[in-house]
Write a structure and sequence with these properties.
mainly alpha; AhpD-like
Length: about 130
């Protein structure tokens, strides 16, 4: 298949490692028991709930912002959330196109990262092709 590559075991485990490290890191942060930090995490969590905009749209906005800001961990998080919210690969790729246009060519390495993550999510069955 043109442009496709088989992912090594290390590559396919990259997302699982991210999930594990994110969870462990968040636990350490929560153990600090700091009111300001708790408030920020609460604000972040509530921001992506349905409101005037549905949560699916908010996750796409988060994905675009994360891509423009060039945060691969954030990109992975929002790609997972987009997939879990039932967004299609085409919808996600369209949002990534917006990020590329807004962010410019400096975003391309992070776009590659996002495409690799999409492949992992497809392999896991989390994202429908």
């Amino acid at each position: 298949m043109k442009g496709s590559k088989s992912m090594s075991k290390i590559e396919s485990n990259r997302l699982e490692q991210f999930r594990r490290e994110r969870s462990e890191g968040n636990d350490k942060i929560f153990d600090l028991d700091h009111l300001g930090i708790k408030r920020f995490f609460n604000l972040d969590n509530n921001t992506y709930k349905d409101g005037a905009l549905p949560s699916e749209t908010k996750e796409l906005l988060g994905l675009v912002a994360s891509t423009v800001l060039r945060c691969n961990d954030c990109i992975d998080y929002h790609l997972e959330q987009c997939a879990e919210n039932g967004l299609s690969k085409d919808e996600i790729v369209d949002a990534l196109n917006v990020a590329l246009v807004v962010g410019g060519s400096i975003v391309i390495p992070h776009l590659r990262h996002a495409v690799d993550t999409l492949e992992i999510l497809e392999q896991e069955g989390t994202l429908d092709s």
